[in-house]
Amino acid sequence: MTTAQPRATEAAHPTTDPAGVLVLAGTPIGDLADAPPRLATELERADVIAAEDTRRLRRLTQGLGVHTTGRVLSYFEGNESARTPELVEALLAGSRVLLVTDAGMPSVSDPGYRLVAAAVEKDIKVTAVPGPSAVLTALAMSGLPVDRFCFEGFLPRKAGERLSRLREVEGERRTLVYFEAPHRLDDTLAAMAEVFGPDRRAAVCRELTKTYEEVKRGGLAALAEWAAEGVRGEITVVVEGAPDAAPGDIDADELVRRVQVREEAGERRKEAIAAVAAEAGVPKREVFDAVVAAKNAAQKVPSVGKELG
Fold first, then answer.
1. What is the percent of the chain with per-residue pLDDT over 70, rounded to a whole number?
2. N or C: which end of the chain has fewer CB within 10 A?
């Protein structure tokens, strides 16, 4: 007599677990048809569903034709810290907790990091349902280099803090990816043009996978002028990395300024010097000497700098 074999999904994900499991579920960033097939299964089998917006969760389950039986809790920026211990208790008690945000992958500029960190600390299993990503989708559609990139999330709302954050990465050679609110897009692009240069190539990706999807490409200054007319929807900005700097292209004052920006952001001087040297393509000693010379000039007292470690 032949015993029926379990389906592949059942074999990979047994219906019972000896301890709780935290499942991070990627959700569509626009088109509901992009939902991964396993998402419906996880929604149905979860003991607890932690949702960034319970109304959006309801629309998601209705659209997928899914009937949930688990307890539904709200889990958003305003209650993330307070609700995390409750969810950890449920996990420790053996519950399968599913975390979903409004769109994309939890933890990536969305609630989730605190819960994942707390689960890892308690040695609770964490797994994921891979799904659509605005970061990777925008990067792939931008037409800019994709072999190396870094995700910077949302920039600060205040103009001075925004400029400071941008200056931290002005020498970054990898492609940069940002999220931004539509009503701040023109100011952000103008700040980027000021720091990175007006002709630095970029792409503004709007309403990805939705009806009014649009990708606007061009120099930062031109894009800022376009955005000033008003832009709507979910926005992802992709910016070309800095060009390789030839030795001697960046003067000593600029090297010192870049080190200062990194120090003000919390980096130790030694690490800041190493990072700036790598960006500028010059020896660490050259940056170190420039920093020491600037310090001595400011104090107007000759001194001997310490050797680099």
1. 89
2. N
Beta bridge partners of 98: 23, 49
Query: Mean pLDDT over residues 186-207, rounded?
Result: 96
E-assigned strand segments in the chain = 21-25, 48-51, 71-74, 96-100, 125-129, 149-154, 175-180, 201-206, 214-219, 235-239
How many angstroms separate the Cα of 168 from the Cα of each of 177, 237, 245, 268?
Answer: 14, 17, 16, 14
CA–centroid distance for 128 within its chain:
17
Q: How confident is the model over 282-300, as pLDDT tens digits?
A: 888 888 988 988 888 887 7
CA angle 103/109/110 to nearest 5° reads 55
Helix, coil or strand: residue 279: helix
Tokens 């931290």 locate to 168
User: From CA 123, how far away is CA 224, in angstroms rounded?
Assistant: 47
- Position of tokens 């940069």? 176
In this prediction, residue 258 has a pLDDT band, given cuts at 50, 70 and 90, of confident
> 246-275 b/e with 16+ CB inside 10 Å = b?
eeeebeeeebbbbbbbbeeeebeeeebbbb
- Distances from the Cα of 76 to the Cαs of 21, 48, 90, in angstroms? 20, 15, 18
List the strands of the sheet with 175-180, edge to edge.
Answer: 149-154, 175-180, 235-239, 201-206, 214-219
From the list 14, 21, 30, the residue with the least C-alpha distance to 48 is: 21
Please write the tens of the pLDDT for every residue from 151-162. Answer: 999 999 999 999
According to DSSP, the β-strands at 175-180 and 235-239 are antiparallel
Task: Give, rounded to a whole angstrom, the gap between the first and last alpha carbons of the chain.
Answer: 72
User: What's the CA gap between 105 and 279, in Å, rounded?
Assistant: 31
Number of separate helices (H) and strands (E) present in the chain: 12, 10
Q: How far is CA 92 from CA 25, 46, 123, 143, 271, in A?
A: 20, 15, 9, 46, 40
Look at the pTM and tell me if it is higher than 0.70: yes
Return the pLDDT at 102: 93
